[in-house]
Design a protein that fits this description.
alpha/beta; 4-stranded antiparallel β-sheet; 592 residues; disordered C terminus; disordered N terminus
Length: 592
């Protein structure tokens, strides 16, 4: 296991570039231009040296100064242009990598069972997709190309110093070993806390998201609420941890920053000493100091970049762990169903092994074009059955077939094309109402979208919105009421026009005025389709071809309305309770 991790750590940068969508090779070009830029930046120092040398010798003329001044300006411009080209290319590569990573993470979550997705908090997922992947951009766009140049520059400067005087060159390295020792100590101390830092950051992000999503409840109950306490505690713990971490590396980090680039500590006194002895000219001393100063800048940059590179490595390895979550298996060769009947055979399912089974051997057949209703007490397994058919999870044992084909032999996208799923908790994107409905059929015309809205009894309220169909639904559709969101979700389902339709209490929030019309629209538009409805309002499914009563993860009874009223005490009690509730509500309305 340790060998696998080590190998993964060694090839992390290659893994990162694999998400560059074919543009990773350009990073090498960026490095080359960065090196040219930094080397070109040394030539003006040489020009100054030549002018100073002539000045000291007393034979300086205007033409000589002009020629070397023009050369200095030209090489400086070359430095600027090459640096611009280098950073332009590196940023292009970096943002391609970011796009590739984000698309890959989104694709992994799309193909993963919901249980795997729910195992990660919203804050953690947001932290990875938005923050951590974004944090890769500065090191990738700057550290890699510029870092390569800044590694080369001190080498070139050292060689140049050797050519001037080897004693000065060696003097430039006097403080380097000490600086490297302190840098290594800093990395060692920092490395122990990097994983803890990532975890603390993820916890804080998760708590922030939870706090914002629950702000309505927190406002109602005040700061004493558990969510606020968790929110404040997560931020405080993060602050305390970061301060403690910085304190542990403060001394070694500052000493590393002090000694690593301290080339002048040796160059200046040694150069002065050599000039005093007549072993070096003043102009050579000036050139040595300028070269040493170039080394200072590069050594300081290397320190900063090395930390950015390590941060990028940790981030990439963490993202890699996320990308390895289990996904729903897909067949190499797809088998398409011959029809749209649904068969559940001895289906068992467990969300969590420690909590035990949720479904215990479900056997159920739904003929193509039939209307099947699932009813029963809360927690009986109705929504679980529906979600297993849509393959949000895979069954623990048994099988689910559509048209005689196991849904595991269908690609996830193919299954999504033939199944429409509408729940009572409908999520809308922060896009226009038009685009939220068009999600059901991306190539639909505006007229088709509007017709679907009319069929879902949504056209009237949409047109009353400030911008009509162009009105934004707001984040998660929060600008709309529950009933309005539900009707838009139903419009989306109607526009998709899939052969299998699953409605999980799809009209729960619909007002009584529109419910009858909506039920009629759904009945008309689902005629001929395989329809599965989960309902608590039993009056809405009394005409179903088959009503299946689920209780405690088992089928307690099934049949038509009349049959169940006689053969199933549980269904009879549920029906009487439903009728009683309706009469009670009607009585209250009359009294009002």
């Amino acid at each position: 296991m340790n060998e696998e991790v080590t190998q993964e750590e060694k090839k992390w940068f290659g893994t990162l570039l694999s998400y560059a969508k074919g543009s990773g090779g350009r990073l090498g070009t960026s490095v080359v231009f960065s090196m040219i830029s930094l080397i070109a930046g040394l030539i003006p120092y040489y020009c100054v040296y030549r002018i100073l040398e002539r000045y000291i010798a007393g034979n300086l003329d205007k033409a000589y100064v002009l020629n070397f001044s023009i050369a200095a300006v030209c090489f400086y411009l070359l430095k600027v242009v090459c640096f611009g080209i280098s950073t332009g290319i590196s940023h292009y590569v970096a943002f391609n990598v970011l796009e590739g990573l984000r698309c890959k993470v989104a694709d992994v979550f799309l193909k993963a069972p919901l249980g795997e997705v729910y195992a990660h908090s919203i804050g953690e997922i947001k932290g990875v997709i938005v923050d951590k992947i974004e944090d890769i951009e500065p090191p990738l766009a700057h550290v890699v190309p510029e870092g390569a140049g800044h590694i080369l520059l001190p080498i070139v400067c050292f060689i140049a110093l050797v050519m001037v005087d080897i004693r000065v060159a060696l003097a430039a390295l006097l403080a380097l070993p000490l600086g490297l020792v302190f840098m290594a100590l800093t990395f060692k101390l920092s490395g122990k806390n990097m994983t803890k830092y990532q975890e603390a950051n993820a916890r804080m992000s998760s708590m922030i998201v939870e706090y914002v999503e629950g702000i309505e409840v927190i406002k109602a109950f005040g700061k004493a609420g558990v969510s606020y306490e968790k929110f404040a505690g997560a931020i405080k713990n993060y602050r305390d941890f970061v301060i403690e971490w910085l304190e542990s590396t403060w001394v070694t980090m500052k000493l590393a920053f002090a000694f690593m680039p301290a080339t002048l500590l040796g160059v200046v006194p040694v150069s002065v000493l050599l000039v005093g002895k007549g072993s070096m000219t003043v102009s050579e001393m000036a050139l040595s100091v300028m070269l040493a100063m170039s080394m200072v800048i590069s050594m300081a940059k290397i320190e900063i970049f090395s930390n950015g590179l390590r941060q990028m490595q940790y981030t990439v390895l963490e993202i890699q762990k996320l990308l390895k979550i289990n996904s729903l298996g897909e067949p190499e060769k797809e088998v398409l169903p011959k029809n749209y009947s649904i068969e559940l055979k001895d289906v068992h399912f467990t969300y969590d092994e420690s909590e035990g089974e949720v479904l215990h051997g479900i056997d159920l057949n739904m003929e193509e074009g039939s209307f099947t209703a699932l009813v029963g007490p809360s927690g009986g397994g109705k929504s679980t059955v529906a979600k297993l058919i849509a393959r949000f999870w895979d069954v623990s044992s048994g099988s689910i077939r559509i048209g005689g084909v196991d849904i595991k032999d269908l690609k996830v996208t193919s299954l999504a094309d033939i199944v429409s799923f509408v729940t009572q908790d409908n999520f809308l994107f922060s896009r226009s109402i038009m685009e939220n409905i068009r999600l059901g059929k991306p190539d639909a015309t505006d007229e088709e979208v509007i017709q679907a809205a009319k069929d879902a009894c949504a056209d009237e309220f949409i047109r009353k919105l400030p911008d009509g169909y162009d009105t934004s639904a707001g984040e998660a559709g929060k600008r709309l009421s529950g009933g309005e969101r539900q009707r838009i979700a139903i419009a989306r389902m109607m526009l998709k026009n899939a052969p299998i339709v699953i409605l999980d209490e799809a009209t729960a929030f619909t007002d009584p005025e529109n419910e009858t019309k909506l039920q009629e629209s759904i009945a008309n538009l689902t005629r001929g389709k395989t329809l599965l409805v989960i309902a608590h309002r039993l009056s809405t499914i009394k005409n179903a071809d088959r009503i299946v009563v689920l209780n405690d993860g088992r089928i307690a009874a099934q049949g038509k309305q009349e049959e169940l009223m006689e053969s199933s005490p549980l269904y009879n009690r549920m029906w009487q309770a439903h009728i009683g509730a309706r009469n009670w509500a009607a009585g209250n309305v009359k009294e009002a």
